Amino acid sequence: MKKLFPLLTLVLLSGCNLRVLDPASDSAEKITDLIYVSFAIMMLVLAVVFVLFVLFIRKYKERPETSDYIPKEKKENKLLEVTWTVIPFLLLAILAVPTVKATYDITSKMSDLSESEPEEAVVVDVEAKQFRWEFTYENGKTTINELVLPKDQKVTFRLTSTDVIHSFWIPRLAGKMDVRPNKENRLSFVPRVTGTFQGKCAEFCGTGHANMRFETKVVTQEEFESWLATE
Questions:
Q1: Which of 23, 64, 133, 143 gives a 20 to 30 Å CA spacing to 11?
Q2: How many other β-carbons are positioned within 10 Å of the β-carbon of residue 9?
């Protein structure tokens, strides 16, 4: 039974739907790339550790002819000490470069909240409440728990809360952004794929937290303009 447990675990995990690994916007693509880079580094470290672990077990396992053997005490090995100190720094530096670049690219879009958006951008005011999302477009159209966006056009969300801290998250379209009372945060991205994507509150906000979900529909420009014009 113990041998079957790892296999059953892998089978169950294989059914997980990891939405963040299936990006549908420019910002989500940057986040996904970072996940892959981090995972590759982690697998490299894991492989080295496991190889060394197996080699040491085989080399130093107790045998009848060596059961009474006591190895001689050795002094420190400066080369090894420097090696296992420098390598983690190098790996962190390799990870830091794309992380800083992606973070700058994503956050630079919202660094100046006073800056007006270009005319072609779609601006949506997002108001989080216990326990629902209200979306208001520039023409005054308001929806509850339903978000419609145009494909291949920049969208900027102006996020506020009427009560507690919430977190706006559409896994396939963008990273999480805190939604706080009495303070406006902004989030921008360009949807690249049409379809329906699940959005949610990623911050526990009370007893109805699980109900703070919404649907995000990405449609063509023509479909979006038609939808926006309807009552």
A1: 23
A2: 10
